[in-house]
Amino acid sequence: NRPGMGTMRPFALYDKTKSVKALTAVLYDARGNVIRKFKKRDFNDVSATGSDLYTDSRALVLDFTPTHFPFTFEIEREVHSSNTAFLPRWDPMPMYDVSTEFSSFEIVNPKQLPLVKRTFNFEEYGVSVSKTPSALVYKVESLAALDSEPMSPHYTEFKPFMKVALQEFRLKSKAAKVRDWREFGLWQQNSLLNDRNKLPNQTLSQVSTLVSGIDDPKDKARAIYNFMQDRTRYISVQIGIGGWQPMLASEVDKLNYGDCKALTNYTMALLESQGIESYYTIVSAGEDGRDLDEEFVALQGNHVILSVPFEDEMVFLECTNQQVPFNYIGTHTDDRKVLMVTPEGGVMTKTHTYSPDDNGRVLKGTAVFDERLTLTGIVEEESSGIRYGDKYPLESVNRDEITRFYAEHWFHLNDLKVSNVVFENDKRAIVFKERLNYQTDGYVSKAGNRILLNPNIFNRQYDIPEHRKDRLLPLEIRRGYTDIDEIEISLPEGYEVTSLFEPVVLENEYGQYEVSITPIEGRKLRYRRYLKINSGRYPKEKFAAFVEFSKEIVKKDKSKIVLSKT
To answer: Which of 39, 188, 373, 483 is the one with CA 20 to 30 A from 13?
Structure first.
């Protein structure tokens, strides 16, 4: 293929089961003239470790920075692999802002082994297909670069893309023949998970003692999950079949560490010892993680969690994080299709979706001015749902990091000082609470005998999505949220209210915004702000209306009142 590479460097991955037989690259200028040719020896051989402690994956990478733009790279790779569980995908548009002059993909299958194929957006981009009894050839040319658009769906939804897999394959030494998810789950269970759940008698005795006297199965599971978290740590070792098969539960128990597969299998074994059923669950993890493709029966996903069924709900456990509460998954694995490996085979299900009401942030504060118009007060805030995940790490950092966090969080407060900071992490309710004293100077602006005061001291919206008239993609709000603020403001001595703004109510399909300020007893004002943003996907034609809604919020968040000297 010949894609315009942008900042992407030509590369080829290999490991003990995959070898790079040939690798070349040609660099062209804007007129199509050859600037330079590269051979395999020009590529640097580097580890592809990433975040893993150790892996046998390596990469040949071309360390080259073009000096003239635009340019084109033509890359040819020949890779041989004894591992047939993963066939190459065809991705002629690998990223935003990269155009493609020409790309082709050929599947040569002389033995006509049964294949699973999934194609996306072929007709829209004019992909041509030619077939012979033993081969399939796909071609596309003149693909213009796609611009990134804010708040749009994942780019794989609207570009040409193809996935291929064999129904009969080998993963290292493990052979598989799968036609549906039930068979796929049975292969995982029998080939990768079977007989890896044995635990030492001493540990079994510890767990039995731990849950003795606990009748509720969910509370038992909670206690066992906490036991696992207290005695293990996450560490990733991706060598050989270990990239797909978990360590023995007994090894995790002995070493007190493991990767996502190992820790999930270990937790499953601990629960099983007390008669609690749970399922090893495959997921595509990450804040932008997608559903597993239910129509493409093949190895998918990049992470494993544990599903635990109870009468009232399905609980999902993240076994690699030793701080998160029982049944909290956050943005890492929320709201997506996953595959549970059960004794009866693979079963698709979906992880928790956090609603806008779940993702709450409630702030209550006071604000008092002294004679120098220095502002002091107390703030109490509670965060839940996805917002909990944003805040709970605060309890593990030092004082300097906490001070820096609030200075950045409330960057509009000049010379901010915080003190008496107290955190309460309610892991059962999954609510994180903050309480602190604050002080800030120069918050108000003076104009003669008047003071201009923005009563929205803490939580303001600044971002307005960029709107282009030629927008191509829908608007997606993946995770809505709710903000509630209530601040009691004591007027400075010698001043009285001259002007208050009228209450504001904005409501539409994207959300709801309400703000008001009212006098209360004792020379005080009460400021209230409510903002709810709804999750959802909307046609591209509605993006302009959402931008206008955002503009109004930003504008009203800046609203000021006027105080005058008495």
So the answer is: 188
